[in-house]
Design goal:
about 55% strand; tRNA_Anticodon_Mtase-Reg; mainly beta; tRNA processing; 2 domains; about 350 residues; 4-stranded antiparallel sheet
Length: about 350
C-alpha cells in the first residue's frame, strides 16, 4: 500500500498542466513477518496477503485510511514516511468486499461520520467513527468503536458494491437524519435500506446516536449476473451495472423499487460506475437537469440521463432534495448512449 502527493500546476510558457508525483508513505502486510523470520523457528504467517480495497477519510488532524481484508484504520505520517495502524476489527470474520463513508451534521453543528462495510456473508455493518474524526488529538485505538452500531442483512452472499445518500435535518425532524443505503451483490440482487439516525440530547447522553432500520426493499433479479457497481445519481434514482452488460436505472419511492429504464452497454466485464449531475441552464427547480454515467470495464462508455424532472420533491434543511417519502412519481428519465470513448482496456 502506498500514498502519494500530487502537485498539479501549469506550464507558463506552453500553457499545459504539469503534475509531479511524490511518494509520501508505504506499507507492506508482510513487513513484520520479514523481521520475525528465523530459519530455526516456525512463525505463524498472516493469512491476509493483499489489500483489495482502500478508502480515505479526512480527519481533523491527519489523513486516515480504512482497508479490508479485515477492517483496518491507518494514519499517514508524512514526517516519518509511513502508515501507522490505529485500529483493526475482525467483526465480519470474512473477506470485506466494499466500504463507503457517510458524513452528517446534527443540530449543534457537530459532524457525525459513519463507515459502512460489507463482506461475503451478505451483511452490512455500520460503524460510528465520529469520535475518531472529531478528536483534536492524534487518533488512537481507544477512540475507535469496538463493535458496529447497526448490522443490516441484505444479501445471500457477497456484497460487491455500496452507495449511500445522506439527508440532513428536514422540516419537523430537528433531532435526527436519514440515510438511504443501496447495495448490490453476487446474487444479482439490488437492495435498498432506509436508516433513521436519532441524535440524543445532552440530557440523554450527549453526542450519542441511535440508528434504526426503518424499511427495506429489494429486487431479487435486478441483473442476470453479479451486480458489480452501483451509484446514486440523485435522491430516489439509482444506476447499476453488471457483467450481463446492462446499465439499469431504478426509481425509489414509498412503494419500493421499480425499474425506470435499461440499456445494453458495449463494455464487457463492467466493474465500475461514476455519475454526476449537470444542472439545466436557467433551471431553478431542477427541471432540465442532465445526468452523466460512465461505465468502466473492458473499455469506457459515457451515457446520458435526460428529462430528469422534479416531481414534487421536498427539500431538507441542507437544501438537498429528497424523494423517499414524497410523491410516488419522483422522476422521469431516459437513458441514452452518448459515445463510446474506448473499446480497449
Amino acid at each position: 500500500m502506498q500514498c502519494y502527493r500530487l502537485l498539479i500546476g501549469g506550464n507558463g510558457q506552453l500553457g499545459l498542466p504539469s503534475c509531479q508525483v511524490i511518494q509520501v508513505a508505504s506499507h507492506r502486510l508482510d513487513d513484520q513477518w520479514e523481521r520475525m523470520r528465523n530459519r530455526h523457528k516456525t512463525v505463524k504467517m498472516d493469512a491476509e496477503t493483499r489489500f483489495p480495497l482502500c478508502l480515505s477519510l479526512s480527519l481533523s488532524c491527519s489523513l486516515s485510511l480504512a482497508l479490508p481484508l479485515s477492517l483496518r484504520l491507518f494514519s499517514v505520517s508524512e514526517l516519518r514516511g509511513k502508515f501507522e495502524l490505529l485500529w483493526e476489527s475482525f467483526h465480519h470474520e470474512r473477506c470485506v468486499l466494499s466500504i463507503v463513508p457517510c458524513s452528517l451534521e446534527d443540530g449543534h453543528g457537530n459532524r457525525r461520520v459513519f463507515l459502512f462495510s460489507a463482506a461475503t456473508d451478505g451483511r452490512i455493518a455500520v460503524w460510528d467513527m465520529s469520535t475518531v474524526a472529531n478528536s483534536d488529538k492524534p487518533p488512537t485505538a481507544a477512540l475507535a468503536p469496538t463493535s458496529p452500531c447497526l448490522t443490516v442483512p441484505a444479501h445471500q452472499s457477497g456484497v460487491n458494491t455500496l452507495a449511500v445518500w445522506e439527508e440532513g435535518l428536514w422540516a419537523g425532524h430537528t433531532d435526527g437524519a436519514r440515510i438511504t443505503l443501496a447495495s448490490g451483490g453476487d446474487d444479482g440482487q439490488l437492495s435498498v435500506a432506509l436508516i433513521r439516525v436519532q441524535y440524543h440530547g445532552e440530557a440523554e447522553g450527549g453526542s450519542r446516536v441511535c440508528l434504526q432500520l426503518q424499511s427495506q426493499w429489494s429486487v431479487a433479479l435486478a441483473h442476470a449476473a453479479p451486480l458489480t457497481a452501483l451509484r446514486m445519481l440523485s435522491p430516489g434514482l439509482l444506476v447499476s451495472t453488471s457483467p450481463d452488460q446492462r446499465v439499469c436505472l431504478w426509481r425509489l419511492a414509498t412503494t419500493g423499487l421499480s425499474q425506470q429504464g435499461a440499456l445494453v452497454s458495449h463494455v464487457a466485464d463492467a466493474a465500475g460506475l461514476e455519475v454526476w449531475i449537470e444542472a439545466g441552464v436557467g433551471s431553478v427547480s431542477g427541471c432540465g437537469d442532465r445526468g452523466w454515467v460512465v461505465v468502466c470495464g473492458q473499455g469506457l462508455q459515457l451515457l446520458k440521463v435526460t428529462d430528469m424532472e422534479d416531481g414534487g420533491n421536498r427539500e431538507d434543511k441542507t437544501g438537498r432534495k429528497s424523494c423517499v417519502g414524497g410523491r410516488e412519481e419522483c422522476v422521469k428519465v431516459s437513458l441514452q448512449q452518448r459515445c463510446l470513448d474506448d473499446k480497449t482496456t
